[in-house]
Design a protein that fits this description.
- The protein is built from three helices and three strands, in the order βααββα.
- The chain has 64 residues and is α+β, with helices and mostly antiparallel strands.
- Helix 1 packs across helix 2.
- The longest helix has 15 residues.
- It is globular.
């Protein structure tokens, strides 16, 4: 059974957009990318990565 993840570790989220772990933690701290705590763990919803990508694209291509 192959299931698509809906939440990623910070490391997985960073890798998915090609940045380092420290940079990802910075984006999380600034609130640029949303995350949630599950117990003691920090997880990044896949939707938060998509929203961040969409915001970046809209900022860099305002005519679209």
């Amino acid at each position: 059974m192959n299931q698509t993840r809906i939440m990623l570790t910070v490391e997985q989220a960073a890798e998915s957009i090609g940045i380092g772990r420290t940079t990802m933690f910075g984006l999380l701290k600034l609130g640029d990318i949303e995350s949630v705590r599950v117990g003691r763990l920090r997880r990044v919803p896949v939707d938060a990565i998509e929203a961040y990508k969409a915001r970046l694209m809209a900022e860099q291509n305002p005519s679209r």
